[in-house]
Specification:
Helix content is about 60%, strand content about 0%. By secondary structure, the protein is mostly helical. It has one domain. Helix 2 runs antiparallel to helix 3. The termini are far apart.
């Protein structure tokens, strides 16, 4: 795991002028967790597209936004 973190740090330092990584508990970012879970379930060669945003995703955006406003 340490090698991956070191590689990420190197890439961030070499590709970005400024980059900040912050921890955000899953409870405060359910949308990112759900989108990552959807992506994880897809075969590596596929892409997810939607004609309309699924209602569950809209609900998570609203929920996350409300938490940020607290």
């Amino acid at each position: 795991m340490g090698g991956i973190i070191a590689e990420i740090k190197h890439l961030m330092a070499s590709k970005f002028v400024l980059c900040k990584v912050s921890f955000c508990p899953r409870d405060y970012n359910k949308l990112a967790h759900e989108l990552a879970a959807i992506g994880f379930k897809l075969p590596s060669s596929s892409h997810a597209t939607w004609d309309d945003v699924p209602h569950a995703i809209e609900d998570l955006v609203t929920s996350d936004f409300a938490r940020v406003q607290e």
